[in-house]
Amino acid sequence: MAVTAAHTKAELARMMRLAYEGQNVAICLINTTATLATDDPIETWLQYEVLPISNGYTRFFTGVLPAGTYSTTAERNEQSALDVEFTATTNSISFTHLVVLLDSYTPASYTSGLGPSSLVGSVTLSSGVELSGDQLTLNAVHDDLSDGDPVTITIDAGGTVPTGLTEGTLYYVDDTATDKITLHTATPVASENRVDITAIGTGTMRVRRCRGSVYSVMSESAATVINDSAKVGYLVTLAVDD
């Protein structure tokens, strides 16, 4: 005998409150030709987030979300559709996916002047790696980082990764000085879980924040380009249903 179950409206409302009420939601642009799965971890996605460098890119953020309401048409609890826009300035922005993040950083978290994105800062590998203490020197003050914050690293085209580190791997920060960090494989960060860097690599390395979780992924059929001074918009809905 087949049995069909459905949540009550009250339970859908409870789940909606637990999931979204009081949270900020971030939506970011991803640019990659790699084949990724929706359930891939956040560091896998954010290693491909658009860099906010001379292009006007910044993440979209909601205000604090309410509890949501029940839609009799969709038979689910949902937020009002989010009117999401991205604008390019000076240079174009190319992207292939939009990723919706929950429990990420809020706009007030970005105090280093780099703007709301995954980018914490950059390391010039020829001069910014101290092998004796595995310490990295960022090219910007990172006063929006705390010990234990999750990050990943990427290398700009043409560069090589420092030996001991891997692109797209989750690490945890030890904020050792105003512009210096070490990377660790676990929390709480300690000397025994610090990554041992044995060669400095070449080029420029980016350090990217990875706090939060991936709620959903929207994929374009082909790479989309936002030209200078143009914008692109989407309607995004968060919902809880059966």
Contiguous helical run count: 2
Which strands sit side by side, in order, in the main sheet?
7-13-10-11-12-9-8
> What is the 3D shape?
globular
Arithmetic mean of pLDDT: 87
Head-to-tail CA distance between termini = 20 Å
**Domain unit count:** 2
Radius of gyration: 20 Å
* Helical content band: under 10%
How many runs of DSSP E, i.e. beta strands? 16
Q: What order do the SSEs take from the amino end to the carboxyl end, as H and E?
A: HEHEEEEEEEEEEEEEEE
Beta-strand content estimate = 35-45%
Structural class: mainly beta
Which features characterize this protein?
16 strands; Elongation Factor Tu (Ef-tu), domain 3; 4-stranded antiparallel sheet; 2 domains; 242 residues; 7-stranded antiparallel sheet; 36% strand; globular; 7% helix; mainly beta
